């Protein structure tokens, strides 16, 4: 046990700059000791076996979200996934769905960030700036805790069946962040901000199949944000207020 066990890693390989080469899986045999994560093994493969292997990583602590990928059919963060939990000793790694592949496990996240930008994910204030910080009670803070936890890893975006069929759909991450600011006691954005989302590419596109909740590594519930935003929109449409 001290020497570790041999695991088989089947890793998706493709280079968009060499489209003539079809996608394939490359197999690596790696000796793994308890405590190693999938990301740590990927780093070892890249550094010691194949320097051409491409993937994203940064914090190694499930904070930045950059190492999201499909691990044995499940979307998760490579840095928090222990290799030893896979008893059959075979691990298949694939890039996140719903985005174009740049190289190997690296995908083009341009549509993900473009959708995020459209909801204006920042605090909006129209009142005069106070001399000190804007006070917020503990209860008010708790209302946004869930959505503040979102690390923008794109796991929900990759799991969303609506995104797979509608490239114009904003995606669950965007709505989670929008609800985070609408629910923030310090935010003063007007309800009119929801009008441009009153369509099938916005708030009414969600199938509510909860794939985004299942995929989130931080226990954020994007579907809850969509339901809340729909209620806000209907309230504004009917009563004309927030």
List keywords for this structure.
242 residues, alpha+beta, 2 domains, two-stranded antiparallel sheet, 7 strands
Please, could you describe this protein's structure?
It is a single chain. By secondary structure, this protein is of the alpha+beta class. The protein has 2 domains: 5-107, Beta-grasp domain (Ubiquitin-like (UB roll), Roll), CATH 3.10.20.30; 110-239, Fumarate Reductase Iron-sulfur Protein, Chain B, domain 2 (Orthogonal Bundle). Helices cover 31% and strands 15% of the residues. The protein is built from 8 helices and 7 strands; from the N terminus they run E-E-H-E-E-E-E-E-H-H-H-H-H-H-H. It has helices spanning 38-49, 110-118, 138-148, 155-159, 161-165, 172-182, 211-215, 222-239; strands spanning 5-13, 24-32, 68-71, 74-77, 90-94, 101-103, 106-107. The protein has a 5-stranded mixed beta sheet with strand order 2-1-5-3-4. Strands 6-7 form a two-stranded antiparallel sheet. Strand 6 (101-103) and strand 7 form a beta hairpin. Helix 2 runs parallel beside helix 6 and helix 6 crosses helix 8. The chain is elongated. The N and C termini lie far apart (61 Å). The model has no long low-confidence stretch (mean pLDDT 95).
Task: Estimate what percentage of residues fall within beta strands.
Answer: 5-15%
Report mean pLDDT, rounded to a whole number: 95
> What's the CATH topology name of the largest domain?
Fumarate Reductase Iron-sulfur Protein, Chain B, domain 2
Number of strands: 7
CATH superfamily of the largest domain: Alpha-helical ferredoxin
